[in-house]
């Protein structure tokens, strides 16, 4: 898929796979809107961070509205990377 001049939304961009995904998309020429609870250390003209808690529907609605107002509604890629884990024994 040609990513140059395409817009992508990536959730969970603060670190790990989300951060690496953002960097890869930027290298391919995409405009990336990162949704997350903590801003990553990215200084790139084609990156926009929007504070979002994907566990909260209102927060996601707000992030989408802000995304559309900043970059338009022609979003080509959505990567739902945000994760949440619970630690403990299966029996518990």
Give a nutshell description of this structure.
The protein has 92 residues and is an alpha/beta fold. It is 29% helix and 23% strand. It has 2 helices and 4 strands, in the order βαββαβ.
Task: Tell me what the structure shows.
This protein is globular. The protein has 92 residues and is of the alpha/beta class. The model has no long low-confidence stretch (mean pLDDT 95). 29% of the residues lie in helices and 23% in strands. The protein is built from two helices and four strands; from the N terminus they run E-H-E-E-H-E.
Structural class call reads alpha/beta
Shape: globular
Q: Please tell me the overall pLDDT.
A: 95
Strand content: 15-25%
- SSE string, helices as H and strands as E: EHEEHE
Q: Taking strands numbered 1, 2, ... along the chain, how are they ordered across the largest sheet?
A: 3-2-1-4
How many helix segments? 2
Q: Give me the oligomer status.
A: single chain
Give the tally of β-strands: 4
Radius of gyration: 14 Å
What level of helicity do the residues show?
A: 25-40%
**C-alpha end-to-end distance:** 44 Å
Q: How many strands, what sense, and barrel or not for the largest sheet?
A: 4 strands, parallel
The unreliable regions are none
